[in-house]
Amino acid sequence: MKLDIGMTKPTKRFSVRKALAVAGALGVTATGMTLASQVAASASGPTLYVYSAQGYDSAAVAAFNATNPGFTVALNDNSTGPLLQEIQAERNNPRFGVLWVDGPTAFATLDQEGLLQHHIVPKSVNFNARGKANIPADGSFVPADLTATGALVWDSAQMTRAQLPKTWNDLTLPRYKGWLGMNDPTQSGPTYPLIAGVMANLGNYTSGSTKHAVSVGEAFFKKLKANGLVVNATNGPTVAAILSHTIKMAIIQSSAGYGKILTGDPSLRVSYLNPATTLAGGMGIDAKMPWTVRQEAQKFVNWVMSPAGQHVMQTGDPQGDSLFWPVITNEHQPSSLPALHTVPMKTINPYVWGPLETKINTWFSSNIIG
């Protein structure tokens, strides 16, 4: 989920500098993978590579390594799109042990390709109703947090609440020409689930063929483009476009909007068109890794879902990805978030929409961005 997926944050820059220092000391070269993922194992044991797009991942990895001797967790931090591209490029020589990103569609696709270990959901975790609803039948990924994608982030310095669109189709009206922005789904993890959710909603999809829903959705996004839609790579530049008055509002991840309000942009507001799309952040384990690596990966997943791991998630990026609704009973949400029951959200079936991601993203790149 990152204030990123992907704004660059100081913790990320620190993580890369630290990786450079360690890599230099160990004589590691930067070929094939991002540098942070190439830091060699310490003397304490082998390395588990975590590919992550979460704003609190550096804090989590540091806390785990400090309290769990025996093997080292190394972080490959990037936006979701590049991480998934990296995994596909490494299919014949897999390197990731754990994938930690937003959006069940990405995990469903990897699961259908046989790349994810099954039954990894810790039995000791007491999930709340939202958490249980996002656990796949085969246990191939673990829901760790919840946000909304398709939140309408808008600037009260440029527009009034009375001027807000009331429905998704309202965004295509001439009075909103040039007002709207969003992210590139090939870069921003939450954006493809947003697109799929809009298609499912506008196309009244319930089951069976998605052809009609996709067609309706494509027509909608073409109308948005004709109405001056501005597409940036990730949350960071999209929110910056609002604050520079290039656009007045954007459909992005909820945590990005709430985070920018907390960082000193009080003119921003977060509203919701009915419905936004439920976005579970999750963790999956590489099924192609040796058994010992998968065991280490399971230990890391179990720790993240423990009270200690959840505490780091909730505090490691307090003005960004830590602004999520918990999926575990008795974990408390940040006070800056509205009560979850007040947010209109629908959940899409990741096993229906995940396999369409490459095709729809390619269409979007050619017809909406291009």
Structure write-up:
This protein is α/β, with parallel strands linked by helices. It has 2 domains: 10-147 and 279-338, 3-Layer(aba) Sandwich (D-Maltodextrin-Binding Protein, domain 2), CATH 3.40.190; 148-278 and 342-369, 3-Layer(aba) Sandwich (D-Maltodextrin-Binding Protein, domain 2), CATH 3.40.190. Helices cover 37% and strands 17% of the residues. The chain is built from 13 helices and 9 strands. Strands 1, 2, 3, 4, 5, 6, 7, 8 and 9 form a 9-stranded mixed β-sheet that branches. Strand 1, helix 2 (57-67) and strand 2 (72-77) form a beta-alpha-beta unit. Helix 6 (191-202) crosses helix 7 and helix 7 (211-226) runs parallel beside helix 13. It is globular, with a radius of gyration of 20 Å. The two termini are 25 Å apart. The model is unreliable at 1-44 (pLDDT under 50).
Q: Which helices and strands occur, and which strands form pairs?
A:
Layout: H1 10-26, E1 47-52, H2 57-67, E2 72-77, H3 80-89, E3 98-102, H4 104-112, H5 129-133, E4 142-155, E5 180-183, H6 191-202, H7 211-226, E6 230-232, H8 235-243, E7 249-253, H9 254-262, E8 268-285, H10 291-304, H11 307-315, E9 345-346, H12 350-353, H13 357-369
Parallel strand pairs: 1-2, 1-3, 5-6, 5-7, 8-9
Antiparallel strand pairs: 3-8, 4-7, 4-8
